Amino acid sequence: MDKHPDAAAVDEILSYFVRNPQAADNLEGIARWRLLNEFITRQVDETQRALLWLVAKGYLRETSAAGTGLIYRLNPDKADEACEFLARSKPDRTGQKA
After folding, report:
1. What is the pLDDT of residues 6-64, one digit of tens each?
2. Inter-CA distances, 16 with 4, 23, 25, Å
3. What is the rounded distance in angstroms from the CA atom of residue 61 to the CA atom of residue 47?
4. 62, 37, 34: which is closest to 48 by C-alpha?
5. Beta bridge partners of residue 69, listed in sequence order
6. Is the dihedral of CA 78, 53, 49, 62 positive or negative?
7. Nearest partner of 79 among 96, 54, 97, judged by Cα
8. Are 23 and 29 in contact (CB under 8 A)?
9. What's the whole-model pTM score?
10. Is-contact 37 20, C-beta < 8 A?
11. Where are the domains of the chain?
12. Burial 64-96 (b: 16+ CB within 10 A, else e)
């Protein structure tokens, strides 16, 4: 091979096989679990940023619970404002935000 592989991909794949020495998969299977892992990681990061923003705006409350970590729930004091925010953020029939 002329090109050097992506170092992160090499580390990720080798780490997986070291952690799971009995694992065996073909190229497509490995690519699928790598993509799935990347997708999940991206979704977790996006969800965390959204939750932090919603807590900062007061729409959600964050509480700590033993054994489960942080728990999020709607702030009842901001429920009407949350509904108004959602109504404003939904696209109208032309696909544009109202």
Report:
1. 888 888 889 889 988 899 999 999 999 888 988 998 899 999 999 999 999 999 999 99
2. 20, 9, 11
3. 15
4. 62
5. 65
6. negative
7. 54
8. no
9. 0.66
10. no
11. 1-57, 59-98
12. eeeeeeeeeeebeebeeebeeeeeeeeeeeeee
- Total count of residues recorded for the chain: 98
Q: Distance between CA 51 and CA 72 in Å, rounded?
A: 8
DSSP secondary structure, 28-83, as one string: HHHHHHHHHHHHHHHHHHHHHHHHHHHHHHTSEEEEEETTTEEEEEE-GGGHHHHH
Distance of CA 16 to the CA centre of its chain: 21
Taking CA atoms, 78 is separated from 10, 48, 61, 95, in Å, by 47, 20, 10, 27
